[in-house]
Amino acid sequence: MEYLEFELPIKELEDQLTKCKVIGEESDVDVSETCKQIEKKLAVAQKEIYKNLSPWQRVQLSRHPDRPYTLDHIRAICGDTFLELHGDRSFKDDKAMIGGLGKIGDQSFMFIGQQKGFNTKTRQYRNFGMANPEGYRKALRLMKSAEKFGIPVVTLLDTPGAYPGLEAEERGQGEAIARNILEMTRLKVPIITIIIGEGASGGALGIGVGDRVYMLENTWYSVISPESCSSILWRSWEYKEQAAEALKLTAADMKKQKLIDGIIKEPLGGAHRDREKTFKSVSDTIVKCYDELKNLSPKDLVSQRMDKYAQMGVYKD
Amino acid sequence: MSWFKRKTKGITTTTEEKKDTPKGLWYKSPTGKIVDTEELEKNYYVSPEDGYHVRIGSREYFEILFDDNKFKELDANLESKDPLKFEDTKKYPDRLKAAQKKTKLKDAVRCAVGKSKGKELVVACMDFAFIGGSMGSVVGEKIARAADYALKNKLPLMVISKSGGARMMEAAFSLMQLAKTSVKLAQLADAQLPYISLCTDPTTGGTTASFAMLGDINIAEPGALIGFAGPRIVRDTTGKELPEGFQTSEFLLEHGFLDFITLRKELKDKVNKYLDLILNQPLRK
What we know:
The complex is a heterodimer of chains A (317) and B (285).
Chain A: H1 8-26, H2 32-51, H3 55-62, H4 70-78, E1 83-84, E2 97-104, E3 107-114, H5 120-125, H6 133-148, E4 153-159, H7 166-170, H8 173-185, E5 191-200, H9 201-205, E6 212-216, E7 220-222, H10 226-234, H11 240-247, H12 251-256, E8 262-264, H13 275-293, H14 298-310, E9 315-316
Parallel strand pairs in A: 3-4, 4-5, 5-6, 5-7, 6-8
Antiparallel strand pairs in A: 1-2, 2-3
Helix pairs in contact in A: 1-2, 6-8, 10-11
Chain B: E1 26-28, E2 34-36, H1 37-42, H2 58-65, E3 72-74, E4 79-80, H3 92-103, E5 109-116, E6 119-126, H4 137-153, E7 157-163, H5 171-190, E8 195-204, E9 217-220, E10 226-227, H6 231-238, H7 249-254, E11 260-261, H8 267-278
Parallel strand pairs in B: 6-7, 7-8, 8-9, 8-10, 9-11
Antiparallel strand pairs in B: 1-2, 3-5, 5-6
Helix pairs in contact in B: 4-5
């Protein structure tokens, strides 16, 4: 288990507890009272730290190296029913964007999401979850295929941004994202979007136009990352914490701004602390959203989705 | 020596009456060519010697596109609010006020309807001078309403992009304008109304990831910077030297993302020619 800086007091207590238990097992000393005391302290410390997370700490949790990624969610939710599908049919298969069909109960879903790696090798393989244009085009191909057969779409968002590379620009990163956003506004099947990690700007929205949009509790979603915002507006990388604060990018903020539909609670300490519980919550949310949407006619579905996005924005008339 | 003596005291010639006085306003193009501003204006704000297309705003584009510079501005009074109470080194409302004072504009886009070669056209034109032409709620809403006007009156829509991207001070609200404007473009498409996207210098970030790349035709002025990530970010991320002409109009045309590049003086003719052709109408002279 890896710990973030603000989690160090928790790590200390957890280490103490482990040691205490070891002593109890290996010697005749009765440690039950001491263990209980540490457990109590630990519970208090956890409550104190995790109940008052700053926006920047939530950003850190959203990038926690142990955090479950897109394929972890899909495999846990769909089990053996998941069938991964590859390629954009014109250039290549983007490893940073995955997709495929799977079942929840009796219902098939088309799953699409950015994929991060869990160690240096796989992180490179997945390009750190930063998709190229072919990734967005692969996503669109899968959505269109789902539409053809009336299969609802689930998108899982977790990206530090679309890849800002030379070749990505040559192949039209902007056009690929723009096309996806437009086509998603009028796709004739339900789209359920869940931000499971980082929701960075157009790279996230490129698969994120949904009838229902939910955020896991410790994720962020905004127009720019706090680091880049800091470097542009403050002209220094040092102001990321202020930037995270100013951007109002947490799930609670986004709900307050009415830009998302709901928040999925995470286990205390973050999604990685109890992965099974997290997967269950995500799966339940998908099912709940689908139940709300499945009886709408394609026409109503699209017009409701369009109205929802047409209303976003705050201005003086 | 009476001709040395003044008959009346002081200088009485008014500035307007003076002949051949320098106006003190010259424009220097990036290649170093010097142009008199009046001459520049007559030449569609294009430097005559090197063909450099000077950055201009909605006022100039409307003048170029609408017959006799006659048009009706749409939703002219829409203004930004500060939904997030955003503050970096400056408070957002202060930034807005300063920008309004400096540019005499309300926000980074102006929309208008008027006759272009005798037929009505809806034009939304961004102003880079206003906080880098950044797109926040007002830009999104005004473009959406311009599209609504086109839908209601069955008119073609043209959007002139000139923007650094989404406006950070409205954070996720700005991001959602990508979806909002796309909704309207989808409705225009379903109504079979033509949408022309003109990319001018610069068109980057959120605008490229939405309406700038979604035209029935995407066109551009020569030499404009057009891209998703800015060149500095691309260089910093990849650590590679950028090739000559990277992310220019010509680069995008070569890679298949533009239908054509047009000189500013041919803009009005070409836009209307396309509209006549795609709508199967007789070509206007």
